[in-house]
Design brief:
This protein is an alpha/beta fold. The chain contains 21 helices and eight strands. It binds adenosine-5'-diphosphate (ADP) and magnesium ion.
């Protein structure tokens, strides 16, 4: 089966297990775009889809993909405006005499307006703006935006395209990931349509090409890209690229290609500082219709530092979780989400010992008793409170916590967590003391 057939079959399986509304809302808009390194590549309209599907339907999706082709090791999302297949684009090209407004695959959600500016990205943003105002007319050609994962390269590149089309609706903007470029090229070889392939790209007034590092090791595709690049560049057409590294430091790309890249302007995007992270979170919360209290925003911004996609993911995950579990957005929920995102680590500066010490100070029960065997009521309660806080703040495994508290097993810890959660709901005294302890442990957000 080819990838389209695999998706067709997988969708069939999904339809058997999921309600129609879920299929309509989340699966019909998905497009299978290929297979790369044993992962099924699925194109979704935006980040929200990735998060929502991962948190609600991951199991079902994995299962249905496995059922239709068990050699696949899962799936990977790629975000883009749902793209047309190569054949369709070639068709559009044939009718080229009449159209004046070109179809493109720009993701309209990515604009300069919603790209938060900070010292980490202002140079890149300004260069992008000036390219969008005068494509091909200044020395910023090609413009290469480089930087780490999830820092806004793709966003900025699409913003350039969107702004350019807004200014001049006749501009033919071709936007593509380098993976897509490669797939299209390979398909064109297979179908003897390399001429159409070349035309499709060479007719661009502006070529936006994402993640050029993926050309690494693909000699024939690089060759093809080199020619496309030259044709466009010589004709004064604008080229914008993104990459994970400064062009001069990219490995596995032909040096003649790299020297072309370096002939234009390369701008970097760095990780955002705290204030920019807060601004981005506020913007993303608003975009997704979540009202998040400021203390939660600050908490997320304190812990998730290196990746804007993760920041955005955290907001969406908070929303998804609260709707899935039908729960208010509270400390525990936000903390859980942040913990998932940071791989279980929260830089809290808190240890089990510190929690026990604080509980001991507040309750008057000795530290020894808390970790000891006694079942006396006030001792047991102090122990349960400690276990609860360990679980909430440190997030360790239930068994690990049990071990520390006198070698108890995980069910005891589970019971403690549940008991205290219930008490917090019903008993304001317990609630207040937990709050006091959180504050004391510097765990208020
Ligand atoms: P990259 O291409 O560098 O891996 P993306 O452009 O895909 O990163 O960005 C990841 C997510 O973070 C996107 O949803 C994007 O909208 C968002 N993002 C990144 N930087 C910013 C920013 N400065 N302002 C607003 N959103 C941003
Ligand atoms: Mg990207």
């Amino acid at each position: 089966m080819n990838y389209k057939e695999i998706w067709f079959v997988a969708l069939g399986h999904l339809k058997e297990t999921l309600p129609q509304h879920a299929i309509d809302a989340w699966f019909e808009p998905i497009k299978a775009i290929g297979i790369s390194e044993d992962k099924f590549l699925l194109e979704v309209p935006n980040q929200f889809f990735c998060e929502w599907i991962d948190s609600h339907y991951k199991k079902e999706l994995m299962r249905s993909i496995g059922l239709s082709d068990n050699s696949l090791g899962g799936y990977r999302f790629s975000i883009g405006a749902v793209s047309k297949e190569f054949e369709e684009s070639a068709l559009i090209l044939k009718e080229k005499s009449k159209p004046v407004v070109h179809q493109n695959n720009l993701n309209r959600q990515y604009s300069f307006e919603n790209f938060i500016e900070g010292s980490n990205n202002e140079f890149a943003k300004n260069a992008g703006k000036s390219v969008s105002e005068k494509p091909g007319e200044n020395n910023f050609n090609p413009l290469t935006i480089y930087g780490g994962v999830g820092l806004g390269k793709t966003h900025l590149m699409h913003a350039i395209g969107n702004a350019a089309v807004k200014k001049n609706p006749h501009l033919n903007v071709v936007v593509v990931t380098s993976e897509r470029f490669t797939l299209d090229f390979v398909n064109s070889l297979r179908k003897n349509k390399t001429i159409e392939f070349a035309q499709q790209y060479r007719s661009a007034d502006m070529l936006l090409i994402d993640d050029v590092q993926f050309f690494r090791g693909k000699e024939q595709t690089q060759e093809q890209f080199f020619h496309t690049f030259n044709v466009l560049h010589q004709a004064g057409k604008q080229i914008v690229m993104t990459a994970d590294k400064y062009p001069g430091e990219m490995k596995g790309l032909q040096s003649r290609l790299l020297s072309r890249f370096e002939s234009g302007l390369s701008v970097d995007i760095q990780p955002p500082n705290f204030e920019v992270r807060v601004a981005i979170l506020l913007e993303k919360a608003e975009q997704n219709g979540v009202s998040l209290e400021y203390e939660f925003i600050e908490f997320i911004a304190k812990h998730i530092k290196n990746n804007v996609r993760d920041l955005e993911g955290a907001v969406i995950r908070v929303l998804a979780k609260s709707s899935l579990l039908n729960k208010e957005i509270d400390h525990t929920l936000v903390r859980d989400v942040v913990r998932e995102r940071t791989g279980g680590v929260l830089t809290t500066g808190v240890s089990i010992e510190k929690i026990v010490r604080k509980v001991s100070e507040l309750s008057g029960v000795s530290e020894q008793d808390i970790v000891g065997k006694s079942r006396k009521m006030e001792i047991a309660e102090a122990r349960q409170v400690s276990m609860f806080l360990c679980r909430e703040i440190l997030g360790g495994s239930l068994s690990g916590i049990g071990l520390f508290f006198g070698g108890r097993d995980h069910t005891t810890v589970m019971h403690a967590v549940k008991t205290i959660s219930d008490k917090i709901q019903k008993n304001t005294k317990v609630k207040d003391s937990i709050e006091a302890l959180r504050t004391d442990l510097n765990q208020t957000f």
